[in-house]
């Protein structure tokens, strides 16, 4: 599937618009249109229902109860700045950026790659942004630089494979992406990804605060409130869906890397001895969630991090990754990370941020010589009221992105096939084969023609179904054209009122994917839809 086709469908049919478009847009920000907002809500609601409100999954972990509880939370976007110090985001949540003095473009250091090439006595590292056809781009750029024509490509003497810019110590011989002169890239500089703001009337650092870069910390800092206000016993999970903000250096690939996005995160608290088993459990359960909702296992993979990729506190992390069509063939992009976080987070909020050897880091002092950043000093341990054991729970964190999941479902659903038009001739159609639970509109109701009482009966059915589902009424144009519009919107069922409906109160239901039409009683429509779309 070509990504351009999906992007234009999203705009044309109102799934996604560039934010602030009439003012030229704002890079890294996206608005969901009338169909998009329903799709994304369905993604989030499916997650919430499957993981929290409707959760009734059982585990078979030795020593752990098979049933466990899940609850929700909605914490604020702006929180006490000390939270970000203790979580490590204040000091460590940065990317390295590189600027080009010639093109004025900015890159993420780790997202530029290139290849050494020699001609005569000049040796240059020709750089390009990571992505599709990078080898071709590098070759083109090298030919241009050495003023060679395509047919002279063999005159270039390549010196080694394509490697990341991060492998170079100096950029003196680097030809930046799209640059004409060598050596215009600045050395990498640290760039904290948190958006800064100021709370209240205080303008200086006193009032400085940050938009949250993840929803997880809101859960950790409320751990004690949740334990004290519910009767949940460990193991249990607390979940949250909400906006997060990251000032990404190079937002790109449609909504995949945005600066404002939504996360769906679970912090699952368990006994330390059982945490490795719970980690496996969540890793597998979360993978299944995506395949149950239609992602093909050919394009979805569960990738365990290598030991050297793991944070010092983590004994296991796995990413669920999808082969997005905008990535080079064979590459995958992260949909969700599942991390075994040990007791790192709760301990950090108790004691202050810890270094790998669990000693509190040196703290900054305020004007009065008092430590400015430290843990809350609150006891965030848990006491098991049956065994009387007190411990700091371990945490398993399945952390998903609502926008990336929505985008993956859209990519997977986009399809072009053939269907007969009104005259019975096969025509290419664009169809979004979204899982019925995710489809923005569950059914469309059409009167075959706009007369003979058909619109009135169709309207009656519409009114009845609307009480339970997001359905759509359409009486404009030829019925084949109306089907096509619904196919593009991903509507799984089209219900048509025809001459026979007036006689025997039956309608036809057309299936979006099989194109089969069956005749059913009007009174059965609600239960039929309920069985198939919820
Ligand atoms: P990446 O390596 O792609 O930047 P990450 O490892 O930093 O992602 P996490 O911090 O683990 O991501 O965040 C959890 C989830 O939040 C990700 O799996 C992804 O689905 C989502 N997410 C993170 N950053 C973004 C973003 N800039 N735009 C959209 N979704 C995001």
Helix content: 25-40%
- Class by helix and strand content? alpha+beta
What is the count of β-strands?
28
Principal-axes shape call: globular
Sheet with the most strands, sense and barrel status? 7 strands, mixed
Q: Note poorly predicted spans.
A: 357-362
Mean pLDDT: 92
Describe the strand arrangement of the main beta sheet, using strand numbers: 3-14-15-21-18-17-16
Could you please describe the fold and organization of this structure?
By secondary structure, the chain is α+β, with helices and mostly antiparallel strands. Helices cover 26% and strands 27% of the residues. The strands form eight sheets. A seven-stranded mixed beta sheet has the order 3-14-15-21-18-17-16. Strands 6, 7, 8, 9 and 10 form a five-stranded mixed beta sheet that branches. The chain has a five-stranded mixed beta sheet with strand order 25-24-26-27-28, with helices on both faces. A hairpin with a 2-residue loop joins strand 6 (112-119) and strand 7. Helix 2 (34-53) crosses helix 10. Bound molecules: adenosine-5'-triphosphate. Adenosine-5'-triphosphate binds at residues 214, 246, 248, 257-258, 261, 263, 334-337, 399-401, 403-404.
């Amino acid at each position: 599937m070509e990504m351009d086709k999906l992007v234009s469908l999203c705009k044309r049919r109102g799934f996604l618009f560039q934010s602030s478009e009439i003012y030229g847009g704002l890079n890294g920000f996206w608005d969901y249109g009338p169909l998009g907002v329903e799709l994304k809500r369905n993604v989030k609601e499916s997650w919430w229902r499957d993981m929290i409100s409707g959760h009734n999954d059982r585990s078979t972990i030795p020593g752990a109860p098979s049933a466990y509880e899940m609850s929700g939370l909605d914490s604020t976007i702006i929180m006490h700045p000390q939270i970000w110090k203790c979580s490590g985001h204040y000091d460590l949540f940065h990317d390295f950026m590189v600027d080009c003095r010639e093109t004025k473009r900015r890159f993420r250091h780790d997202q530029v790659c290139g290849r050494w090439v020699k001609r005569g006595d000049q040796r240059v590292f020709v750089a390009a942004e990571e992505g599709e056809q990078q080898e071709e781009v590098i070759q083109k750029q090298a030919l241009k630089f050495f003023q060679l024509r395509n047919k002279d490509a063999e005159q270039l003497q390549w010196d080694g494979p394509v490697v990341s810019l991060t492998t170079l110590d100096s950029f003196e011989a680097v030809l930046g992406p799209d640059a004409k002169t060598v050596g215009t890239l600045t050395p990498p500089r640290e760039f904290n990804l948190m958006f800064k703001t100021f709370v209240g009337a205080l303008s200086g650092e006193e009032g400085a605060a940050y938009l949250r870069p993840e929803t997880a910390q809101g859960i950790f800092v409320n751990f004690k409130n949740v334990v004290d206000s519910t009767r949940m016993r460990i193991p249990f999970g607390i979940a949250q869906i909400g906006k997060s903000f990251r000032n990404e250096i190079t937002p790109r690939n449609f909504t995949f890397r945005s600066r404002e996005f939504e996360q769906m995160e679970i912090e699952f608290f368990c006994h330390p001895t059982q945490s490795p088993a719970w980690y496996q459990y969540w890793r597998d359960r979360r993978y299944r969630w995506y395949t149950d909702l239609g992602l093909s296992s050919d394009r979805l993979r569960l990738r365990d991090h290598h030991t050297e990729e793991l944070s010092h506190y983590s004994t296991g992390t796995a990413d669920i990754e999808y082969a997005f069509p905008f990535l080079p063939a064979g590459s995958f992009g992260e949909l969700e990370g599942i991390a075994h976080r040990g007791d790192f987070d709760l301990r950090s909020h108790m004691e202050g941020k810890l270094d790998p050897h669990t000693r509190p880091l040196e703290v900054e002092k305020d004007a009065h010589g008092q430590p400015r950043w430290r843990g809350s000093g609150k006891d965030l341990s848990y006491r098991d009221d049956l065994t009387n054991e007190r411990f700091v729970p371990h945490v398993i964190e399945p952390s998903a992105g609502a926008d990336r999941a929505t985008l993956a479902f859209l990519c997977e659903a986009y399809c072009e096939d053939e269907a007969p038009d009104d005259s019975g001739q096969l025509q290419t159609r664009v169809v979004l084969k979204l899982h019925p639970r995710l489809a923005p509109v569950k059914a469309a109701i059409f009167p075959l023609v706009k007369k003979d009482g058909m619109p009135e009966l169709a309207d009656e059915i519409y009114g009845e179904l609307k009480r339970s589902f997001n359905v759509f009424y359409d009486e404009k144009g030829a019925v084949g054209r109306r089907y096509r519009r619904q196919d593009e919107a991903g509507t799984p069922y089209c219900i048509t009122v025809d001459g026979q409906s007036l006689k025997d109160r039956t309608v036809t239901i057309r299936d979006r994917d099989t194109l089969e039409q069956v005749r059913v009683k009007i009174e059965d429509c609600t239960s039929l839809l309920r069985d198939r779309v919820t």
